[in-house]
């Protein structure tokens, strides 16, 4: 599959901003499952300073500083990616028992250094007995890792209600577990917290997903949204992505931008401003499927 993504973030301030410093995660990364063909990041007003680097998690990150006085800050990301085939659920049936994976991750750090980063509590995800207890019905000793994780993803989908009014970025995970409501970010944090509380390595993935218009309706420009899901570490297959919000193993409709321990590591745009007063945030996202160009026959 091949997609074009346009993501526009606009901050509108009541009064003049004299300085804005922001850290951006809006450039998609390349991986075994995704190739970025082109990307453009446009910022208005023009930044006085701009530095791109690769962060600890190997995501592309842009630091910008805008010294020009302004009442509107607009950041637009436009890129095209091609997604490669991922393994189907039927191809993952030989995963090791989850408890064996957890034991090896804890006692064989040298062989799985990348995964160790994602074993423990992080700023937005606190491991707890309550999270382990919620996950436990899907994880009995000897059960294969992938089978157990998939069932946990299904349970979150079935038992939690998608409700954008129920939470915000600061809502504690304990409140999400009790209230059983939230959005994709909450469900990703919840599932990661459950897995880490059992000793498994799991990371937060941010990006986009192709949405399906109502039957008989057309795709609406700007009606798509950022999305979040999780990736769990398997000793045999490496990292495998699951989407608890949509009850699926990630295949060819998820476009990855960045990954980290939780949302705080990969927020699309965060920073500080001097001045501005009250502010309004407007976000438009459009994901467009493109025709995959095939090589001409010889």
Largest sheet: 7 strands, antiparallel
Strand content: 35-45%
Individual helix count: 7
CATH fold field value of the largest domain: C8orf32 fold
Inertia-based shape = globular
Mean pLDDT comes to 91
Q: From the 3D coordinates, which CATH architecture of the largest domain would you assign?
A: Roll
Our Rg estimate from Cα atoms comes to: 20 Å
Helix content: 10-25%
How many separate domains? 2
Stretches where pLDDT is under 50 for at least 5 consecutive residues are: none
Determine the structural class based on helices, strands and strand pairing: alpha+beta
User: Could you give the count of β-strands?
Assistant: 14
Order of helices and strands: EEEEEHHHHEHEHEEEEEHEE
CATH class of the largest domain: Alpha Beta
Q: Gap between N and C termini, in Å?
A: 23 Å
What this model shows, in words?
The protein is of the alpha+beta class and 298 residues long. The chain folds into two domains: 2-83 and 267-290, Immunoglobulin-like, CATH 2.60.40.2250; 89-266, C8orf32 fold (Roll). It has seven helices and 14 strands. The protein has helices at residues 98-107, 113-116, 129-135, 145-159, 173-179, 184-197, 263-266; strands at residues 2-27, 34-44, 49-54, 60-66, 70-83, 161-162, 181-182, 202-209, 226-234, 238-243, 248-249, 254-260, 269-275, 279-290. Strands 1, 2, 3, 4, 5, 13 and 14 form a seven-stranded antiparallel beta sheet that branches. A five-stranded antiparallel beta sheet has the order 11-10-9-8-12. It has a two-stranded parallel sheet with strand order 6-7. Helix 3 (129-135) packs across helix 6. It is globular. The model has no long low-confidence stretch (mean pLDDT 91).
């Amino acid at each position: 599959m091949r997609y074009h993504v346009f993501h526009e973030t606009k901050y509108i301030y009541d009064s003049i901003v004299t300085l804005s410093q922001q850290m951006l995660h809006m450039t998609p990364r390349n991986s075994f499952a995704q190739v970025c063909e082109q990307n453009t990041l446009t910022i208005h007003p023009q930044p006085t300073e701009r530095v791109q680097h690769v962060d600890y998690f190997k995501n592309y990150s842009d630091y910008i500083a805008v010294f020009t006085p302004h009442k509107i800050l607009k950041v637009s990301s436009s890129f095209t990616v091609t997604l490669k085939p991922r393994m189907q659920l039927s191809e993952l049936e030989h995963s090791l028992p989850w408890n064996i994976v957890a034991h090896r991750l804890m006692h064989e750090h040298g062989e799985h250094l990348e995964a160790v980063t994602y074993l423990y509590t992080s700023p937005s995800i606190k491991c707890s007995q309550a999270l382990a207890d919620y996950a436990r019905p899907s994880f009995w000793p000897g059960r294969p890792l992938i089978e157990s994780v998939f069932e946990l993803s299904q349970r979150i989908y079935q038992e939690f209600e998608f409700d954008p009014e129920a939470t915000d970025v600061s809502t504690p995970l304990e409140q999400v577990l009790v209230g059983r409501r939230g959005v994709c970010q909450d469900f990703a944090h919840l599932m990661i917290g459950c897995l880490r509380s059992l000793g498994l390595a799991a990371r937060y993935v941010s990006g986009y997903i192709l949405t399906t218009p109502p039957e008989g309706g057309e795709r609406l420009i700007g009606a798509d949204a950022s999305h979040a899901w999780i990736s769990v570490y398997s000793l045999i297959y490496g990292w495998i992505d699951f989407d608890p919000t949509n009850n699926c193993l990630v295949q060819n409709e998820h476009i990855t931008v960045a990954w980290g321990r939780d949302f705080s590591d990969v927020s699309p745009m965060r920073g500080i401003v001097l001045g501005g007063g009250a502010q309004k945030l407007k976000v438009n996202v459009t994901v467009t499927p493109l025709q995959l160009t095939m090589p001409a026959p010889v």
